[in-house]
Amino acid sequence: MAGCAALVIGTSAKVKPTGGINEANGRPNMGFPDGQPYDVDWLGQKAQIDAAKQAGVGHVAICSSMGGTDPAHMLNSFGRLPGGKTGGGILHWKRKAEKYLVNSGLTYTIVHPGGLLTEPGSRRKLVVGIDDTCVASQNRSIPRQDVAEVLINSLIHPGYKNRSFDLVSEPDSGAEVATDFSTLLDPLSGANSDYSLGFIPDEAAAAAEEKSLRDAAAQPKSRWPHLL
Fold first, then answer.
1. Which of 12, 65, 169, 193 does the annotation list as catalytic?
2. What SUPFAM superfamilies does the entry give (predicted)?
3. Is residue 101 included in any domain, yes or no?
């Protein structure tokens, strides 16, 4: 990262079907076969923040997720190991990485987008909020392209420095919508996300999480699981 003026972190564990049906709710089992949130959203993002600080990067922006104020959010249940105490917790680990950045001394911007849409950008009015106030709205989604535009502009306009906010959009207007990114955050009147809300695992919990995941991964797998 030497010589970089800014860093945008967009890494995230990705939930996928893991096979079978959850007997409790009748839905497909979901998990993180390519990397648990603890490794990707906490350790991975922490490593990027540390590297940015060491390299003298001036500004770090994170694309995170809405829903972080609700410890019981459905997304946190995906990837839980048997017993329900370890694994998963994706929004918990994202929020821990966010708080780590806030406390790092680096200039930061943290964006919590709603549900991501694979649709053209610049066709919707963008709406900002804090602390998941947008969750109650009928419009809780936003095109990926619009999120990318906000992240890029957060590195340009000074009003985004040391800000943490939610981001959604109104329905597709059917035509191009011009956004003044320099004033996008004005409706917040300087308010930021409140990190006393939600759940942020402490270091002891993080160490226990890591050990549990490593132990589970090290367990031999039976060739005939139906006989167990």
1. 65
2. NAD(P)-binding Rossmann-fold domains
3. yes
Compute CA 150 distance to the chain's CA centroid, rounded to the nearest angstrom.
15
Cβ count near 144 (within 10 Å): 15
| Per-residue CA distances from 221 to 32, 216, 217, 224, 226 (Å) | 18, 10, 9, 9, 12
Whether 70 is covered by a domain: the verdict is yes
- Chain-centroid distance of CA 95 in Å reads 7
Residue 144 resides in a domain = yes
Count of domains for the chain = 1
Question: Could you report the per-residue pLDDT of 40-50, keeping only the tens digit for each?
Answer: 999 999 999 99
CATH number at residue 154: 3.40.50.720
CA distances from 104 to 68, 99, 185, 192, 222 (A): 20, 8, 23, 17, 45
Cβ contacts of 44 within 8 Å, gap of 6 or more:
11, 35
The per-residue pLDDT for range 64-107, each reduced to its tens digit, is: 999 999 999 999 988 887 666 678 899 999 999 999 999 999 99
Q: Is 189 an active-site residue? A: no
Residue 111 belongs to domain spanning: 6-218
Judge contact between 93 and 38, C-beta under 8 A: yes
Q: Is residue 40 part of a domain?
A: yes
Q: How far apart, in whole angstroms, are the C-alpha atoms of residue 141 and residue 118?
A: 10
CA 113 centroid distance within chain? 8
